[in-house]
Fold these 4 entries.
Entry 1:
Amino acid sequence: MSVFQDRKEELEKHEFMMGTHRGRLAVTLDLLTEAMVLVGQHSVYCRSQRKPGQPAMDIRLINQSLGQAKELIQHVMEEMRAERERQRAQ
């Protein structure tokens, strides 16, 4: 199922509040956060053989990539907000 169908209500709410682009980015952040929670839960059971106190390397890399994706999206959203404020100030 398409994200536009599966998350229709959430998209509509955020797009109305924030505009189309920022609203979709906000929903994307929510999806990434949900994925990070699932990876975190999985990491409890999937432990490293070399470092028993830590998740397996693939789980750590997935979590790192998701965190970096969130960071990039947050930066884009902040830049969009700053640009909008600059345009209003002119």
Entry 2:
Amino acid sequence: MRFSTDELQAASELVYTRMQPTAQIMWPQLSQHLGCEIWVKHENHAPTGAFKVRGGITFVDWVKSTMPQMRGVCTATRGNHGQSQARAATAAGLVTRIYAPFGNSVEKNAAMRAYGAQLIEFGEDFDVAKVEAMRVAQTEGLAVVPPFHPELVRGVATYGYELFSTVPDLDTVYVPIGCGSGICGTILARDALGLKTKIVGVVSTEAQTAKLSYDAGRMIETNSCATFADGMSVRVPVQEALDIYGRGAERIVSVSEEEIAEAIRLYYRGIHNIAEGAGAAPLAALMQEREAMAGKKVCVILSGGNIDTGWYLTVLGGGVPQV
């Protein structure tokens, strides 16, 4: 999969019919704390509070243009992807059927319903819910929204296109990995612009499928993915994504639950921004690698800010949410 600058520009123009670009800000508070020039790409300020909103816009537009007979879409999610699909599909007059695992974020579930989703809780984790969503989509005549698709990635890549067009001389960008649309979009935007910026993926130590697969050069499933960074809570990697980040990422870093929680606290203390677990993971990785990054120009993707109130209070109180 590759995108030209013309394709990314066209995707951006489509995305901007439904949202404004997000800011990339250099924060001296973070820079002084970690000893390097730190830029934050604020996808937590996007509609729905997460980067996924972009892919929903491009994917639903693609469904409308290529499958006009479809009455709706069906997908699985831990929350941010589901909000993006519900927002875009509802605006397009389509039904949105969404499967989320039992015990999913209460507040993300409420947000998906508010955007118009028919939400069904199913299975013990995302990967089980995904299998059911794909089955139901095929039996009920709904367009399948997989966790990874060229139109999802093209939409998501617009944040990387914004970032690199504004700050082209970054040394390194840290990106969280769930199913991989975010890191792949960032890599493809960098490549389209012909830049040399290094892209570092980030996973939780409790959900390492992407790192294990990257290190092995082949898909490696895990038995569990019990992290409070639910946007990274994936057991089964996506081959199409691995094909991109396997060759395009500099490395993949694992961060602990405690490190993610401390990064959430730093975001609040330092710049008074709310980050969910996956959104804070890139900053946690930079904190882990602060000596290697000393003096460099670095960006962390704050991919989302949708953390449930109870978990956030636990983190701000010095704890780590239990899952």
Entry 3:
Amino acid sequence: MTLPNLAEIQAAQQILYRVMPPTPQYSWPLLNRRLGLEAWVKHENHTPVGAFKLRGALVYATWLRETQPGLTTLVAATRGNHGQGVGMAARLLGLRAIIVVPHGNSLEKNRAMLAQGVSLVEHGDDFQESLEFARGLGAEPGHAILESFHPRLVMGTATYALELFQAAPELATVYVPIGLGSSISGVAAARNALGLSTEVVGVVSSASPSYALSFVQHQVVSAPALTQIADGLACRTPNALSMEAIWDNVARIVQVSDAEIAEAMRIYYQDTHNLAEGAGAAALAGALHERPAHGPIGIILTGGNVDRSLYSRILNEEI
């Protein structure tokens, strides 16, 4: 896969900055002390939908509207954050949005999507089944599906990485969670566009290891997605196109347990007073797991959309 270049990433920024400002990146003293080096956290929990997904969704949806005459409806499958991004993008562009979620999806993420004006459809027992159903809806006249991995999504996600690389000191390593791969591909694209030597490291849940297994075996490998607290990482079958970008640009993929992710969520609250959902805290869990010897490092906090009941249990160390 060919990653976006600097001009394409900057063009995506022009689309985004009409509706949101750049998000901050901070180096937190307590977190630095805990890690034993200088770390810069990219706060994608500070976007209008509480996660990085708006970036890719708006860039992708804008392109679809420009290239598909007669488009009326955007369709997407999601566990929550992608659906919020697509819902907001559709609202801003004057389009309808149909979002498909699996049964038992996060109630609070469902509420947030409904608040964007989407039509919410429950189908399937996991993301993969929801995605297959959504693709059928996306084939109807006037409809278009926004896949959870697409080059236009990567153009959007690369915008936060460009912000980080241009604002922070030159980073030795950046830790990035992997759901379906658009985020880490965007980080690699921005790194490459700026000619940096920063090492890009992916982080997945050990309870949802499909991307880690695929990375090692250099082929797409499906695996159960059983994480209980990081629904944004619950991918059963990796996207083949995203794996091409990861094989070509990522140094390694670290697996962390749900217990490590829960601890990272608590640390974010204790050390920075920031809310992080499970997937959002995974990069910090990866950095704590590896304990890199050299800094500074980047840590991508991809989102803060966690249900109150789950977060309460995590803060109380019940998970």
Entry 4:
Amino acid sequence: MTQQRTFGNIRKLPSGRYQARYTGPGGIHVKADHTFATKIDAEAWLADRRRQIDRNLWDPEAAAQTRPRATFADYSREWLEQRQVAGRPIRERTRSEYRSLLDRLILPAFGHRELTAIRPADVRAWHATTAVGKPTQRAHAYALFMSIMATAVADEYIDANPARIRGASTVKRARDIRPASVTEIAALTEKMPERLQLMVTLASWCAMRFGETVELRRRDIDLEAGVIRIRRAAVRVNGKYVVGQTKSTAGTRDVAIPPHLLPQFREHLVRHAAPGKDGLLFAADNGGHLHPSVHQRAWYTARAAVDREDLRWHDLRHSGAVLAAATGASLAELMARLGHSTPGAAMRYQHAVNGSDRAVAERLSALAL
């Protein structure tokens, strides 16, 4: 939020602090080299600069020294603390991944540099020698660096983003996913331990993410309505589960259960889910969240048994999307079922017609008959 004034202007930052700037004689743009805790402090700073100009005491060289000269390390630290997506703080796992990319790949090259001193040639040289042989990691590091510098442009620390390498923030998928068929899904389910069989169903037929699945509790399963109410997700951060919001706003959703699967849900709730309305559907022996290693061992054994060792767990979600698409589901219906907010900003406003997900679920059951 920027407030226009007769001299200079004051902008309230996302952090709640205030930023002041003005245009001096000769059209020189000057911004305070620090932010202010209150608006009245920012106003006082502007008033002092106005008096200097009125009394011919204003020194353009001294004013130039007040322009922000933040290093990339300092600015990226502030950026990470304040980072939000769609008005929501980023998840702790995402924050941890960003911090890791910064510490390992970005700060060694740019941490000591002032933002204004980083040139496109510096970025190209860094990109050419960073994470060689690891294209996905390099693309993620570049995308993070580009995003930080884009914010620095918006904050007027720099005039232009030096990250200008076309296509550097994306990576071509290294492998094509071969979706699991209905028969293969059934075989994979059978080869899993009984208490984990419903996980295959949730990942495939209901296209749920792993973090959404391991955080499911009894109260999230509405058998009367035939829906799964996805409201939270659990992610591993520094070796521990952290429960928080779903991956995106679109990820908070109700997923209709294909009717032919309702008996499996009932049996799991009776035999395997932890007691109480907050009981986890897939609890560890100690009552906490299922440890990834327990799930991975079971999954690797199951996929080997059906000769689908190429199939990653997340590929089951892809398989579920393909199955739903095979029913004739529209793009909007698929986005609603999978909890996707893309493609494009316009798709955020395209909602599945009420009850259409129920129709998708019923058509999914038809595929199994």
